[in-house]
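ARCHIVE CARD
CATEGORY: sequence design from structure
SOURCE FIELD: tokenized fold
FIELD CONTENT:
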């Protein structure tokens, strides 16, 4: 093998996928996991098993962490001190921006550089043309291992604040989980009338696929430019119209006897925008309503 030495700690589906991609790219991959059997297939494919986290860290120039959260990182690396010096830790685990900043300070105190990563595809898509990863933190460490990280997905460096990649990761998952919640709520709503999911879901999926063209007919960049400029045109639909729809969805859910927390929260956004005098603006004006809520909290 001619590739650089990379260690992967944490062999859930994502950690295993990253390890396989790195092995295929010719890297010298060392792996560690609390449950050793998860490494069996990787070892058979050419990875080296480390007997301890300290041994795993010592083996890698780049140490990729793929764990449940940052608490798991503290637990795994609790007794690893001397081995950290000179290493680049790339933590692709999910947590909060503040936790990542705390971890970067800790890594720096031990002589290691720290890079936060947010891998934006499921395990099956790691290393494919669809994969992309947000990074932030120590730029030197990122650039030093750019080639290895590129194998996981298109690397997008956001800056030296280690919290930025985590924030971007959570923001994307905010969209994803909210969309899933909408599908779940709508499925329960139609089900309350005896409509089978197989009847409802195909149409809902068609709607989801059409949303980009509906909300950004000129492309995402054009929509983003309007939002950043504080422009929220309500030419085709406005907050009064959308708010009325939100009222109808909530009333329908109440009548159906299903949970109303989600439609109530959505309606609150449009009501706030209207109360703030932006009824004739477009739906993107609700972003200001969300910002105002955060500012007053």
């Amino acid at each position: 093998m001619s590739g650089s030495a990379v260690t992967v700690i944490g062999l859930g589906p994502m950690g295993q996928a990253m390890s396989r991609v790195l092995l295929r790219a010719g890297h010298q991959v060392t792996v560690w996991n609390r449950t050793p059997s998860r490494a069996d297939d990787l070892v058979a494919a050419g990875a080296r098993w480390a007997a301890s986290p300290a041994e795993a860290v010592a083996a890698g120039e780049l140490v990729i962490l793929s764990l449940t959260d940052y608490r798991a990182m503290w637990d795994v690396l609790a007794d690893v001190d001397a081995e950290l010096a000179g290493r680049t830790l790339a933590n692709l685990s999910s947590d909060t921006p503040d936790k990542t900043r705390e971890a970067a300070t800790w890594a720096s105190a031990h002589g290691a550089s720290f890079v936060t990563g947010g891998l934006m595809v499921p395990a099956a898509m790691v290393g494919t043309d669809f994969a992309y990863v947000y990074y932030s933190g120590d730029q030197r460490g990122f650039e030093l291992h750019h080639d290895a990280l590129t194998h996981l997905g298109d690397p997008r460096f956001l800056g030296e604040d280690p919290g930025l990649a985590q924030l971007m990761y959570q923001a994307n998952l905010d969209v994803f989980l909210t969309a899933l919640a909408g599908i779940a709520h709508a499925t329960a709503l139609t089900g309350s009338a005896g409509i089978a999911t197989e009847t409802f879901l195909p149409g809902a999926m068609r709607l989801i696929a059409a949303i980009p063209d509906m909300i950004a007919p000129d492309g995402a960049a054009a929509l983003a430019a309007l939002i950043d400029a504080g422009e929220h045109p309500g030419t085709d639909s406005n907050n009064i119209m959308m708010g009325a729809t939100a009222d109808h969805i909530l009333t329908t859910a109440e009548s159906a006897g299903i949970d109303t927390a989600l439609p109530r929260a959505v309606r609150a956004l449009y009501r706030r925008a209207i109360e703030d005098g932006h009824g004739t603006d477009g739906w993107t004006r609700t972003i200001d309503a969300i910002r105002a809520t955060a500012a007053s909290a």
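CARD ANNOTATION: The chain has a mean pLDDT of 96. The longest strand covers residues 113-119.
SHELF: design records, drawer C
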